[in-house]
Structures are given as structure tokens and as C-alpha cells.
Design goal:
The chain is of the alpha+beta class. The protein has a single domain, classed as Aminopeptidase. 28% of the residues lie in helices and 36% in strands. The protein has an eight-stranded mixed beta sheet, with helices on both faces. It is globular, with a radius of gyration of 15 Å. This is Acetyltransferase.
Length: 176
């Protein structure tokens, strides 16, 4: 299977590669997770998990590319050094919708990597019939809220410290 690899340029002009996750990426996902700050881990997983377990890493890399898809970003020099991940997992109750999740290494925040990952994932989701992403994040996570709003986040609902909403995939967000 073609892994959908493509080169993208970040706001700085720096190139990165984005490709579908592979089962062999499990150990690298664990390494990348361990390098995330506690705040980033908490904002992404909503828990202070100190490490990604072997079973979690296996789950995150055992994708079928239809109901569970994930893309990783890496530098052109080393395709095993993961700097970002975006994934969707379809809801069994409504296969036209999928949960969206994004993680970017702390040192790559603010460079447009998450935007690029969401765009690649959006295109793949549309190819396999996903019509809408649902997302949930911490209400104080302004960078992710800005990212998702620029991607078309609507229907925002605040419940305690959490915000949820959806992105209709037929509609493109404004350009960067």
C-alpha cells in the first residue's frame, strides 16, 4: 500500500514529510511521547500519563487506513524520527463521523505542522467516506482551538474545562 507520503513546507519554509503511520513506528511513538512536556501530554491525552505503554503504542500503530487512520510527520533526514501525529477513528455508531486527534512535538509548535497534518488527514477522511470530524479539547488550549477553528470547527460546546465541536469535511477552512 502506498503510504501517502508527501513533502510539505512549514511557515518557515522548512520541509517535513507526512506519511501514513506504520506498525514499525510503535517504539518511535513511545520515544516522541516521552519527550513531550507534562502539559502537552495532559492536553493531548487529558491525563498526566508519564509514558505510552506498549499496548497503547501498538494500538496507535495498528491502523486499518479506513476506520482508523493516522499520519506521522518527520524530517526529510530521518523518517523514523516522528515530530507529529494526526489521526481519526470512526465512530461505530455513525461511520460518517470520526474522532480527530493531533499531537505535535513541543519544539515544533507554532510552525504550521498541525495545520498541514489536519489537511492531509482531512483529504484521506473524505476519500474513505468520513463526512465530519468531532474534536474535544481543554478549554484553555488556545493554540488547538485556533487551529481547529481555522479548519472549520463549529458547534462548540463547553462542558466544565472541555470544549467539543465538529468540522464538516465538505467545507474547507480558510487558507493559512
Amino acid at each position: 500500500m502506498d503510504d501517502g507520503a508527501c513533502e510539505v513546507r512549514l511557515r518557515s519554509g522548512a520541509p517535513v514529510w507526512i506519511r501514513q503511520v506504520r506498525s514499525t513506528d510503535a517504539a518511535e511513538l513511545q520515544r516522541a511521547f516521552a519527550l513531550m512536556s507534562e502539559e502537552s501530554q495532559y492536553r493531548r491525552f487529558l491525563t498526566g500519563t508519564p509514558r505510552l505503554t506498549d499496548s497503547q503504542a501498538a494500538y496507535f500503530t495498528a491502523v486499518d487506513h479506513v476506520d482508523h487512520e493516522a499520519y506521522v510527520a518527520h524530517s526529510p533526514q530521518d523518517e523514523t524520527y516522528i515530530i507529529g501525529v494526526a489521526r481519526f477513528i470512526r465512530y461505530r455508531s455513525d461511520p460518517s463521523e470520526a474522532e480527530l486527534a493531533i499531537t505535535v512535538a513541543d519544539s515544533w509548535h507554532g510552525q504550521g505542522l498541525a495545520t498541514a497534518l489536519v489537511q492531509v488527514l482531512r483529504e484521506r477522511a473524505k476519500e474513505v467516506g468520513v463526512k465530519r470530524f468531532r474534536a474535544e479539547m481543554m478549554a484553555d488550549n488556545e493554540p488547538v482551538l485556533r487551529l481547529l477553528r481555522s479548519a472549520g470547527l463549529t458547534g462548540e460546546t463547553v462542558t466544565g474545562e472541555m470544549v467539543s465541536g465538529h468540522i464538516d469535511l465538505g467545507e474547507q477552512g480558510p487558507p493559512d
